[in-house]
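can u do me a favor
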């Protein structure tokens, strides 16, 4: 994969992760153990992907994390 493809895939994975994990703090008691395990597995997949391409694309991957945080942060502070 070239750096652009790595970035696009990582952004996609982060977006999916943000959607699934963003609900956990709000609804922790309502979530079953299975749902929490799935969230942890999703986090592990994103981290594994980042480690796989870290040596070639560390700056791009970090930029994706910062951009996703900035995108999600305003929504969570409004709650």
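np, heres the sequence
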């Amino acid at each position: 994969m070239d750096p652009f493809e790595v970035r696009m895939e990582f952004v996609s994975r982060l977006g999916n992760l943000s959607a699934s994990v963003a609900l956990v703090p709000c609804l922790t008691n309502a979530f079953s153990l299975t749902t929490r395990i799935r969230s942890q597995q999703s986090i592990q997949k994103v981290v594994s992907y980042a480690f796989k391409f870290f040596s070639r694309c560390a700056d791009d991957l970090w930029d994706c994390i910062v951009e996703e945080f900035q995108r999600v942060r305003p929504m969570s502070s409004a709650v």
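The chain has a mean pLDDT of 79. hope that helps!!
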